[in-house]
Amino acid sequence: MTVPTVLTARALLLDMDGTLVNSDAVVERIWRRWADRHGLDGDEVMKVVHGRQGYASMAVLLPGRPMELNHADNARMLAEETADLVGVVAIPGAPEFLASLRGLPHALVTSADVGLSTARMAAAGLGLPGVRVTAESVGASKPDPEGFLKGAAELGVDPADCVVFEDSGAGISAGRSAGMRVVGVGPRAHSHRPDVVVPDLTGVRVERGEGGEVRVVVRGAGV
Predict the structure, then answer these.
(1) What is the strand order of the sheet 131-133 is part of?
(2) By CB count within 10 A, which of 100, 111, 133, 186 is most buried?
(3) How many whole angstroms separate alpha carbon 112 and alpha carbon 14?
């Protein structure tokens, strides 16, 4: 029997897309249309966009483009994404994982705005954590650590005592830059070397330790 990996923390910080919610079908539709409009290779665009706010992805893909155009495109695309919920489902194990966090310090830290995060979590049948850091809450997109640092501050927990759950390179980099340990979720996480990586959330169990700490027990984990 494989020995589980155990991480001890004071709080958990959770990304949404790719971590709790599988929204890949929508993201592909929206961003491939954008790539076509700008004469970009769709496959190359998809390597960049996960984890970042839209305007930040555009700045990488179209360097030198005026940022006001990126923000305008980002606003239009957020509206499209919020309206398009076809294929949005929960990551396997996410409902049980979130249920295990009741009464434990945790926060959602997402590059989506309030409208999109609310719509996608509802479409996936998942409840929203009480503490949420969304696009409106930060001045810099992942891979900047601002969102995770704000999540830790809102929970009153030192960053070093937080464990991040993330799927993307940008998100994993943000968690590391914040001084946090990272559990990578899904296939995108593998190549970015999180502390632990799992295919989904079915093998993750969370429990309260005797001293009030949060124990994350991960079965079937890789590194």
Answers:
(1) 131-133, 106-109, 11-14, 162-166, 181-185, 196-198
(2) 111
(3) 13
Catalytic member of 15, 24, 161, 195: 15
Report the C-alpha gap between 37 and 31 in whole angstroms: 10
CA distance linking residue 57 with residue 69, whole number of Å: 13
Q: Which is nearest to 175 in space by CA: 188, 162, 191? A: 162
For residue 144, indicate whether it is catalytic: no
198-215 pLDDT, tens digit per residue, is 999 999 999 998 888 999
**Given 17, 73, 167, 195, the catalytic residue:** 17
The answer to whether residues 9 and 161 touch, using CB atoms and an 8 Å cutoff, is yes
Kindly state the DSSP code that residue 129 receives in the 8-state scheme.
P
Say yes or no to pLDDT of 1 above 60. no
Where do we find the tokens 């665009």?
Answer: 45
Catalytic site includes residue 17: yes
Contact criterion met (CB below 8 Å) for 194 and 172:
yes
For residue 97, the one-letter residue type is F
pTM across the whole model: 0.93
Q: Give the tens place of pLDDT for each residue, 26-47.
A: 999 999 999 999 999 999 999 9
Res. 112: pLDDT tops 80:
yes
b/e burial code for range 47-68 (CB count within 10 A of at least 16 → b): ebbbbbbbbbbbbebeeeeeee
DSSP string, 68-125: HHHHHHHHHHHHHHHH--TT-EEPTTHHHHHHHTTTS-EEEE-SS-HHHHHHHHHHTT
